[in-house]
Design a protein that fits this description.
mainly alpha; 185 residues; AhpD-like; globular
């Protein structure tokens, strides 16, 4: 086994253990060579970018985007990451369930913006203005990357045959029903 491949396999295994997540799709890519995995590593950098926006609304955008792609394991992974980052379980339950009324205002704005972006809804323009007014221009870039990464991983997994639809997600040790994402078009 080549050194980069060995290191990559070790990192994938560590990620799986840390997050209780099946990353077999990454091994499928790595089997084509480290050069095939390199672009996926770029997704990791995009996924981690957060500037100018609080943690909870940023995670809310990621959750909505993963849920829109109907990937249960990806949604669970983002929820678990949000929990470990200190995002309130009640807020996460509201986001996962699609219960806008139960969300704090910041998370509700991020969720509404994410939905509008995913639906290519003209309302995204007004919501983007609200995001800028609340947090600044950096927040829009952070949300854009959160939405992109929330969709990219599930899309990659489904294309490779590893996608899995979700019914329930664990939040704070409790099963939480996942709201279906209805696209406007």
């Amino acid at each position: 086994m080549k050194p980069l491949t060995h290191v990559a396999n070790s990192r994938i295994a560590a990620f799986e253990r840390e997050w209780n997540y099946d990353a077999s799709y990454l091994r499928t890519i790595l089997a084509r060579g480290f050069g095939a995995l390199r672009p996926a590593l770029g997704l990791e950098r995009i996924s981690a970018y957060r500037k100018g926006i609080p943690r909870a609304p940023w995670f809310a955008a990621k959750i909505v985007a993963a849920r829109a792609e109907d990937c249960g394991p990806c949604t669970q992974l983002v929820v678990t990451m949000a929990e470990r980052a200190g995002v309130d379980a009640a807020t996460l339950r509201a986001v996962v369930a699609g219960d806008d009324d139960a969300m704090p205002p910041d998370e509700r704005l991020a969720v509404r913006f994410t939905r509008a972006v995913l639906d290519h809804d003209p309302e995204a323009d007004a919501l983007r203005d609200e995001v800028v007014a609340r947090w600044g221009d950096d927040a829009v870039v952070s949300l854009a990357y959160a939405i992109l990464s929330g969709r990219a991983y599930p899309t990659l997994k489904y294309a490779l045959g590893y996608g899995r639809a979700c019914v329930r997600v664990q939040v704070g040790g409790e099963e939480t029903p996942v709201a279906a994402f209805a696209h406007a078009h």
